[in-house]
Specification:
19% helix
């Protein structure tokens, strides 16, 4: 799902904007080998992505960060992640095709462009039922 909203105190703090500023809220489910593995709740500051809409987001031919670069000239330079294990709520279990109560990996990530500009804040739920979570950040 994709919608425009106002930043809450929590999302505003993470994105370094004032509460009430316009943001995009995107809920995306990623699949591997046809099975749902990741549920993302993404927050983006609307001022950085002025023409973004559900069609542009869902029809992109690259990763989210690749779209940031190609369409908006925004390069993600680094990310920070906080990981924890928790039991998924009913909605997350349904989205990830899990039987409750099911353990998931919760990842809270902030992505930054140059000069430490926050461009993406997300809460990600990862099913480790069939896959592991691998994080490779930076240049290799």
């Amino acid at each position: 799902s994709f919608r425009r909203a106002q930043a809450t105190r929590l999302s505003a703090a993470a994105l370094n904007i004032a509460p009430g500023q316009p943001i995009f809220i995107i809920r995306a489910r990623l699949r591997l080998q046809g099975k749902p593995v990741i549920l993302d709740d993404i927050r983006l500051p609307a001022r950085l992505f002025p023409d973004l809409n559900e069609h542009i987001f869902s029809q992109r031919d690259t990763t989210v960060y690749g779209m940031f670069q190609a369409r908006y000239g925004i390069t993600v330079a680094r990310t920070t992640e906080v990981l924890s294990a928790e039991l998924a709520d009913r909605h997350t279990c349904l989205a990830l095709d899990l039987q409750p109560p099911a353990p998931v990996l919760k990842v809270i990530r902030t992505a930054y462009a140059h000069k430490d500009l926050p461009v993406d804040w997300r809460v990600r739920y990862v099913s480790t039922k069939r896959h592991h979570y691998l994080s490779m950040l930076g240049k290799f």
